[in-house]
Amino acid sequence: PFSSTGPLPTGTxxxxxxxxxxxxxxxxxxxxxxLYLQQNQIEKMENLECFPNLRFLCLAGNRIQxxxxxxxxxxxxxxxxxxxxxxxxxxxxxPRSLRILDLAGNQCTQQEGYRDGVLAALPQLLxxxxxxxxxxxxxxxxGGGSCSSEEEEEEEELLPVLRAPFTVDxxxxxxxxxxxxGRARLRRTLSLEEHRARLQExxxxxxxxxxxxxx
Length: 215
Fold this sequence. Notes:
Elements: E1 2-4, E2 12-14, E3 23-26, E4 34-36, E5 56-58, E6 78-80, E7 100-102, H1 114-121, E8 127-128, E9 131-132, H2 137-141, H3 149-163, H4 174-210
Parallel strand pairs: 1-3, 2-4, 4-5, 5-6, 6-7, 7-8
Antiparallel strand pairs: 8-9
Helix pairs in contact: 3-4
């Protein structure tokens, strides 16, 4: 089982492919925001309330038969339950905060009215089973000025995933981190170029003021 008697060291915990059979109770995990438990032997979703600030949860490729025990995760934005053994989906068990949900590879996706039912239950959803959600409430709110800066930043973090759907093997947050890192590098490059341009402009003005040969 996966358990801990003390706080885990970082905000991201990676325990994929560790032959874990269950999620045990842990304490002091308020700092954890991302939990990777894909490709294990987990049969039940339990003790997730130990991670009250969890935003990203990957349980893909396990043996889970039922979606449950998620209501305490009020900040959960991304949930990957693809390739499990979920035959019937109870949408009441899904947190309303979800923006991205993946249930591909489960029998429940073959239920009549599956997609419409999920979309009706999750008005903030942006992507379901790697397919963008058109006309979602989140899209309608965009640009309306009603979102806080933190909410806008969170949505911006999720958008790269929409353009390049995550997969179990690649790690469903890898693309997000790479794109965010690329954006940061681009901002630094543009800032440096702007700084150099200003320096050059100052040098040229100084040369004009001082006249030739007085650098």
